[in-house]
Amino acid sequence: MKVLLVGATGNLGIRLVAALLTHDHSVVAFVRSPNKLESLLPISVYRQITVVQGDAKDAASIKKAILDADCDAVVNTAGLAALPPWGKSDLPAIFRAVLNAVQDAGSERKRPLRTWFLGGLGVLCFPGSESMLSNYIPIYREHRQNIHLLKSLPPNTNTVDWSMLCPGTMPPESSEVTVPTKLLHGKLIANATTPPLWQDSWMKHIPLIGKLVVCAMNAPRYETTLEQNADLIATDLESHESPWSGRTVGVIDPSK
Ligand SMILES: NC(=O)c1ccc[n+]([C@@H]2O[C@H](COP(=O)([O-])OP(=O)(O)OC[C@H]3O[C@@H](n4cnc5c(N)ncnc54)[C@H](OP(=O)(O)O)[C@@H]3O)[C@@H](O)[C@H]2O)c1
Ligand SMILES: *[C@@H]1O[C@H](CO)[C@@H](O)[C@H](O)[C@H]1NC(C)=O
User: Fold this and answer.
1) What is the pLDDT of residues 2-44, one digit of tens each?
2) Does residue 159's CB lie within 6 angstroms of at least one atom of ligand 2?
3) Domains of the chain
4) Burial class, 199, CB count within 10 angstroms (exposed 0-12 / middle 13-18 / buried 19+)
């Protein structure tokens, strides 16, 4: 597919450039600074992509980039959620702009764009309940308003075919970006709505703190690498019908 990658200079962004090229997608990178992107990528990789300069809070320029390049898909990795519950970042404004751009472009070309957004582990639900993990561990809560925005889209609008990847902590495997990628840690296991392979415990029944304790016990198990998550998105975009459409997606590294 032809993919508009918003936020290509970020930790996940540069690895997505490599993963998307490895999976035979065309990449249009939407960044604030083409110079920065050039400095982060090997020249042989930089030459394989198209670069558009713009601000990810500006829906009109994102929409123009989608339509000008005739993209079929969008991946947004721009913006970084604030950690403390009172923290504020640009992520919500970026998220709204990308969503508006994708919807407008989708209605103009009369076909919804396949779109991956990034969330975090905290917007997945505690297995067996509808309550998000971030109700128990209140960090990175800015992702919550983003998922609410997606879930509140009118059901039959059909202007965006979205998924939200919700990883835990993502350290890098390597600081080197190569095409083709070398996946040192293998493929992830994914599941919609709840974290895959969750370890349940009787402790969840302890009043007040039970679920918090179970979340804290499980959370470290969901550390995956940036490269693994980039590969999951690039692999998914190879199929025309994704099992993850309209879902939040949790991931775990089965080799750990
Ligand atoms: N890293 C983790 O462990 C982790 C875990 C779970 C979820 N997440 C989520 O995954 C996403 C990506 O994380 P990351 O670690 O790759 O973040 P990051 O390295 O901080 O990258 C953020 C990117 O956003 C771009 N950006 C910020 N404001 C922009 C604007 N107004 N216009 C255009 N670009 C803008 C930055 O561009 P510049 O280079 O120009 O600054 C940078 O490329 C985030 O939403 C994060 O909350 C991350
Ligand atoms: C995926 O989620 C479903 C429903 O929440 C659950 O029944 C199933 O066991 C989960 N699969 C994995 C691999 O965790």
Assistant:
1) 999 999 999 999 999 999 999 999 999 999 999 999 999 999 9
2) no
3) 2-195+222-252 (3.40.50.720)
4) exposed
